[in-house]
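Researcher: I'm preparing a figure for a lab meeting and need a structural model of a single chain. I don't have an experimental structure, so a prediction will have to do for now. The sequence is pasted below. Please return the structure as C-alpha cells so I can convert it later.
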Amino acid sequence: FITSKKAVLNIQNNDHYCFGYVMVAAFFKPQGSPVLPSSYPDFKNVFNWDGIEFPVQIKQISIFESNNNNISINVYGIEKVYKNQKMVFEVVGPLYYSK
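Model: Understood. Here is the structure written out cell by cell.
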C-alpha cells in the first residue's frame, strides 16, 4: 500500500538511528543504494542533535525542528483495519504536525 505510492524509504539498519538516516536521505542524493546508511553523509555531522536521544520519540521532534530551524516535519502512521472481512491499511494522523 504505502510502498506502491513511493512515499517511504526503508533504510536498512540494526540500531536506533532510523530518524537520523531518514533525515539525511530526505536532503541528500544517495551515493549508492538508497536503502543503505553508508550511501549518505553521516547524519551526526549534518544536523544539530542537541537534546535528542535515540531512538527519537515524537515528542522530541519539536526540539529537532528548533535546533534546525529550516526543517519542518509532519508524522503520520498506518493502522491495520478490517473492511468487508479484508485487512487493509489506513493512514492515521497527523501524529505530529509542524508548527
